[in-house]
User: What shape does this take?
Amino acid sequence: MTDLEITAAAGSEIGRRYRANFDVVHLSEHPLLAVVADGMGDGEGSAMAGRTTVDIVVERLARNADKSAIREAVAVAQRRVGEFGRRIGELAGCTLTVLAQAPDGLWLGQIGDSRLYRLRGGLLELLTVDHTMAWLGAVHGWYPFDSPEAAAARYRLTRYVGHPEQPEPDVVHIHPQAGDIYLLCTDGVAEQVSYQRMLEILGQGGSPRRKVKELLAQADNAGGRDNATAIVVEFAG
Assistant: This one.
């Protein structure tokens, strides 16, 4: 990691549906710590869950970024968000995707349906799994991807911060290479910007800031049906 140069940018837009932005984003580059969270719904529990979870993750991983720290941070967030939801008597929850630099590479933490993509050698890959019934349905052929059943199942999360069972995140180790481009995003980007358009934007020239701006503009042009948040991280030799 020491021989790779990192450049990154982040952005978030409210969109046209909600009265406020319930996405939360954090980006620091030295060392890299990129975090996106997406509050569930548009209430007090949504706002608390996203902000609290990101604050906990940033505080814990700033000291030590590894798989144990990610699991510990999510566990703490699960307890605090769950307690808040019980206290107010309504849903409090959020998704979380985090990419953290460590001496031996990158650690990815994932819970919910925000995403991490990687562009390497012209191939744009999704490195995360959506923790939703829609994902399970698509994998197992329960219903066509573009069916009404699939659309409804996208809102049925099997794991998230604030879940009553306090599920653990997926944690994956990644070895970045020179030329890699990573995109962390909430579903306001993933659901509104097509794979092909995402590939075109990430693969074009220009800075990460320009790419973030174009991704968010594409989400708005597609209808702005949700808060939209993106972080683009590029590695150079």
About this structure: The longest strand covers residues 5-13. The beta strands are 5-13, 23-29, 32-39, 94-102, 105-111, 115-120, 123-126, 170-174, 181-185, 228-236. Residues 67-88 form the longest helix (22 residues). The mean pLDDT is 95.
